[in-house]
Write a structure and sequence with these properties.
Blueprint lengths: L14 E10 L10 H11 L6 E2 L5 E5 L6 H21 L3 E3 L18 H10 L1 H4 L6 E6 L6 H8 L3 H8 L4 E2 L2 E2 L5 H6 L5 E2 L7 H13 L2 H5 L3 E2 L1 E4 L4 E4 L8 H23 L9 H14 L4 E3 L6 E3 H11 L1 H7 L2 H4 L1 H8 L2 H12 L2 H14 L4
Amino acid sequence: MDPYREFARSPEPTLGIEWEIGLIDPETRDLVPRAVEVIEEVEARNPGLHLEREFLQNTIELVTPVCHTVPEAVAYLTETLGKIRSVADEKGLRLWASGGHPFSDFREQAVSAKMTYAEIINRTQYWGQQMLLWGVHVHVGVRHEDRVWPIINALMTKYAHLLALSASSPGWDGLDTGYASNRTMLYQQLPTAGMPYEFRSWAEWVQFMTDQRTSGVINHTGSMHFDIRPAAKWGTIEVRISDATSNLRELAGIVALTHCLVVYYDQLIDEGADLPILQPWHNAENKWRGARYGLEALVITSRDTDERWVTEELVDLVDELQPVAQQLGCAAELAIVLEILERGAGYHRQRRVYEVTGDWKAVVDATCDEMESMTWP
């Protein structure tokens, strides 16, 4: 199968989640490059369990099998996280997740021994070296390649919505950047990352990927790291917008929203309805506003440049998606979106701790605590 041409159609809107978490030294609160030894021990104790080695040696990626519902996927992550925690505890390490670490020095963090990663660093130099970033990737099965880009273009109109809920990277190099998601701003510096182009057909995408392969771009990076992209090998759309959440409850809410949106737009195609689409410059502005302001963002909602608060948009979206959530068995998880609006996103909580303590180490402790409780205070 040529992954740049052939799309492995998924007859059902299956679900898969990739969640990146880091290993923390409880004394220094810094990241430690011990992922390989933790992964090897977890896998040795649990035959058949597979964990991914990530870009950095301080990171473990949890990957679900193909699931059908959000509760099924979250249950798998919960069980897997418990197995990782048992080993981490024995090794005197804490588990942590966020869009970015607030003070770790990227120059001191080792990159994993994988040729693709070494090639990225070699090619991108300073910007590639700074990728102390963690995210959540959500795969949703799509039944035909002709539906992929209409759905992706529609999802781009909800970019700020997904980002604002998950934004959890205000701190960088010991500073409050002023952004809710500094990860978003950093990651787009890579030449193959950022917003996807507004492809109108699968054929356009195939031509683009052919060009990238011919010009050698893919040889350097392994793939295109767009914020939303087709994963042709799996027959999915992969949504890569969200910062890594510090806990499983927030993760469940964000994944439910993502799953529902993809299926909702797929059903609109069945109904012969036009899917929403915004000008690329509006999508770019919404992305920036989501990264800068998070849940305080005023977002552009129409081609006529109408605007609305993202929190109001999210309340209405949860209501609009209720029938789809019922079909997908994730109504309870979708309702967590409203909890996040009420209690605040990750960047809110991190800033509150820093404002009280003036210490980013206290922020790391609080974020680790959320991982251990699997929810937020």
